[in-house]
Design goal:
With 296 residues, the chain is mainly alpha-helical. The protein has helices spanning 4-23, 28-43, 47-52, 55-66, 74-83, 91-96, 107-126, 160-179, 185-196, 215-222, 232-243, 248-255, 273-289, and strands at residues 133-134, 139-142, 154-157, 203-206, 209-212. The protein has two domains: 4-127, no CATH class; 133-296, no CATH class. A hairpin with a 2-residue loop joins strand 4 and strand 5 (209-212).
């Protein structure tokens, strides 16, 4: 049986490799520019932040591997990405290459923001399907609406009660691994795969078979009890947010709808974390009205 540290180590290594492929996706010349900027941003951080983010040392170590002399700069990288219409694909390099919209803004604060954001992205990436959310910050990465227009994945803030349920579910998974260790090895392995992100985080059990929680499977399992469209929750949330006067562009961004193929929360977006908190608060109030979280 895997303990928590072994589970964490297994999926962390795999996701770390994936993150670095996203961070350094170009030729040696372009990757060298990104590496130089990553090192510059990381060195701006205070000791407090370096101690908190162990990812700092991993980023520096990986960036050192890509360092070499290059005649281009980060602005050139960003222009290349924009010219090729690849901001939705190369979001991390585009963010690293982003600059201030107005020269009157504080560049030092902007660089600090970029450095902390880069480390937060790294932490979210290190930690796969189960790691699509980071409970301490309530950030959840959703990738449910890939279209011909491109990638519309985004980060939202989870409601407090949703975080509470996820924390308890993770505890349940760990206990289930222990309980089913010798009783039902296949079930124990399926719970382990939820924790290591080798399979979907949630799944249905029917006798000895397991089915991932997807819209089609939801309809199959829930139709007799709750005969609604598989995406009814999305429409319900949209109506709820409209009722509370949330701006249409914020609702669309939260739901992953794109505007002319651009991501709502890309580097130059005017949407803010405080607006995401507004949505999170409204949803949390709905959970309270429904009586959720009362007995946890």
């Amino acid at each position: 049986m895997l303990d928590k540290s072994e589970i964490y180590s297994r999926f962390k290594e795999r996701n770390k490799e994936h993150f670095f492929r996203l961070l350094f996706p170009f030729s040696k010349k372009e990757n060298a520019v990104i590496a130089k900027e990553v090192i510059r941003l990381c060195t701006l951080l205070s000791d407090k932040h370096r101690d908190y983010f162990e990812e700092y040392y991993l980023l520096i170590e990986e960036a050192q591997k890509h360092r070499e002399v290059s005649s281009i700069d980060t602005i050139s990288i960003l222009e290349m990405i924009k010219k090729e219409g690849q901001i939705g694909t190369h979001t991390i390099p585009a963010f690293i290459g982003s600059t201030l919209l107005h020269t009157s803004y504080d560049k030092d604060k902007f660089d600090q923001y970029k450095a902390l954001t880069l480390l937060t992205i790294a932490r979210l990436s290190y930690i796969g399907k189960h790691e699509d959310f980071h409970l301490p910050t309530a950030i959840y990465w959703i990738n449910d609406k890939n279209t011909s227009m491109g990638d519309s994945s985004r980060c939202i803030l989870l409601a407090d009660i949703a975080v509470l349920y996820l924390e308890h579910y993770i505890d349940y998974l760990h206990q289930a691994v222990i309980y089913h260790g010798n009783r039902a090895p296949s079930l124990k392995q399926r719970y382990e795969k939820s924790l290591t992100s080798e399979e979907h985080f949630f799944f249905y059990r029917l006798d000895s078979s397991f089915d991932d929680v997807t819209p089609s499977n939801f309809a199959q399992f829930a139709d007799k009890l709750f005969p609604l469209q598989p995406n009814w929750a999305r429409h319900h949330i949209r109506s709820l947010l409209c009722h509370h006067g949330v701006a249409p562009e914020l609702i669309s961004a939260w739901m992953g709808h794109q505007d002319m193929g651009k991501q709502a929360f890309h580097s130059f977006s005017q949407l803010s974390q405080s607006q995401l908190k507004q949505v999170s608060h409204i949803i949390n109030q709905l959970f309270i009205e429904l009586g959720l979280g009362r007995e946890i």
